[in-house]
Amino acid sequence: MISVNPPVPIDHPILKKKYFITFVYKQNDGIHKKTVKFGKKGVQDYVDHKNRERRDLDLARMKSYYNPFKGNYWRFYLLNQCTTVQEAYTKYLNEKNLL
To answer: Averaged over 37-43, what is the pLDDT?
Structure first.
């Protein structure tokens, strides 16, 4: 990954996701841009409920959090790691050496 823009809240009555994130990555045939929507509206994540035990149970059930092209990846890193999305975003950038 080359760069990751901050997550943006989705404020649309029809869309069923909480946020979207856009990132730029390099592949053999050039540089690409990808937008992924994540976080189901109506479902509380760690940034909402701040309950560590509940978070640990959620993370244990979560699958496919290793693929940045999938919403669960961003849900894992940005909605279930820290108490705020901004804090989790900064932590992610530091861990992935993208700052």
So the answer is: 95
The three-state secondary structure class of 65 is coil
- Residue carrying the six token digits 């937008």: 35
Instruction: Give the pTM.
Output: 0.90
CB 83 within 8 A of CB 17: no
Here the contacts of 39-46 (C-beta below 8 Å, separation 24 or greater) are 39/71, 39/74, 39/75, 39/79, 40/16, 41/15, 41/16, 41/17, 45/75, 45/79, 45/80, 46/79, 46/80, 46/81, 46/82, 46/83
Q: Which residue has the tokens 């992610």?
A: 92
